[in-house]
C-alpha cells in the first residue's frame, strides 16, 4: 500500500546481502544511538484515528501464517489473537522478530539491521515506529517520503481539512528505522490494518541467512544518492553525485 522512507546517512556502500558471509565478518553488534528514543508502539500524541477495518474470523492457517499466503495477509490485515490460530505468534503478526539485530558495517561504519539466523520469506520483522503526524495533502504541496518521514496511504477518519498521515522516526523509533535501501532488497514496507489500528511493517520477500542485511527498495524517486553497490543498481548514473 505504500513506499518507504530512507536516509543518505544509512545507505550501505556495498551489496547488502551475500549468502555464506558470517555475521562477524562484515558486521559487528552496535548500540542504538542515544539521540534516538526507543519505541515499542506508535507514538500518537495528536490522537489520529484511522477508519475501522474488521477482521473476518480466524485465518485457519494450518502452518504458521506467512505474508502473501495467510488469508488475513491477502486482504492486508495483520494477525492478532482474535483472528489467528497461532495467537498472532506467526509471520503475519506485529511482534518484533528476535532474529534480527542492529549492527555496524565494519567497512562503511554505517548502521544496519542484520539477520542473526535464517529467516524465511513472508515474515513480518517488525513495525516502522515513530511519531504519528499530520501533513498537508493539497495538490500544491503533496507530501513525499524523505529523511525518516514515511507517508502512509491510509487517510485519517473524517479529517476537517485535506491531510495525510506520516510516521516521523527522526528522533524516536524502533529497530526497523535503521533498515537501509538497496536496489536488490530482501524485504519491503507494507501498510497493514486490523480494527482501528493501521501501521507499517517490514516484511521479508526472500529467505536469508545469518549475516545478511535487511534492505528495502525506496523506489525510483530517491532523495539521496543510492550507493547500494549492486550490479543491477537502478541509479548507477548518479553514483558520482553528492547527497543533496
TrEMBL record:
GO terms for biological process: methylation. It comes from the Eukaryota. InterPro entries: SET2_Histone-Lys_MeTrsfase, SET_dom, SET_dom_sf. GO terms for cellular component: chromosome; nucleus. It is found in: Chromosome; Nucleus. It holds the Pfam family SET. PANTHER family: SET DOMAIN PROTEINS. This is SET domain-containing protein. The lineage of its organism: Eukaryota, Sar, Stramenopiles, Oomycota, Peronosporomycetes.
Amino acid at each position: 500500500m505504500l513506499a518507504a522512507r530512507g536516509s543518505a546517512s544509512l545507505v550501505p556502500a556495498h551489496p547488502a546481502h551475500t549468502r555464506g558471509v558470517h555475521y562477524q565478518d562484515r558486521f559487528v553488534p552496535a548500540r542504538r544511538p542515544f539521540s534516538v528514543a526507543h519505541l515499542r508502539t506508535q507514538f500518537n500524541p495528536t490522537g489520529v484515528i484511522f477508519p475501522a477495518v474488521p477482521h473476518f474470523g480466524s485465518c485457519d492457517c494450518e502452518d504458521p501464517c506467512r505474508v502473501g499466503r495467510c488469508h488475513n495477509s491477502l486482504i492486508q490485515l495483520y494477525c492478532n489473537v482474535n483472528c489467528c490460530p497461532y495467537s498472532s505468534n506467526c509471520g503475519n503478526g506485529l511482534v518484533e522478530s528476535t532474529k534480527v539485530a542492529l549492527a555496524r558495517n565494519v567497512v562503511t561504519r554505517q548502521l544496519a539491521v542484520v539477520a542473526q539466523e535464517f529467516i524465511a520469506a513472508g515474515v513480518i520483522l517488525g513495525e516502522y515506529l515513530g511519531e504519528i503526524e499530520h501533513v498537508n495533502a493539497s495538490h500544491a504541496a503533496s507530501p513525499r517520503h524523505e529523511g525518516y518521514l514515511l507517508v502512509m496511504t491510509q487517510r485519517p477518519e473524517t479529517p476537517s481539512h485535506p491531510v495525510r498521515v506520516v510516521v516521523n522516526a527522526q528522533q524516536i523509533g524502533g529497530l526497523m528505522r535503521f533498515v537501509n535501501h538497496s536496489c536488490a532488497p530482501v524485504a519491503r514496507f507494507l501498510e497493514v490494518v486490523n480494527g482501528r489500528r493501521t501501521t507499517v511493517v517490514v516484511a521479508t520477500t526472500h529467505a536469508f541467512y545469518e549475516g545478511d542485511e535487511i534492505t528495502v527498495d525506496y523506489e525510483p524517486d530517491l532523495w539521496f544518492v543510492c550507493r547500494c553497490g549492486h550490479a543491477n543498481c537502478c541509479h548507477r548514473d548518479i553514483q558520482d553525485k553528492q547527497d543533496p
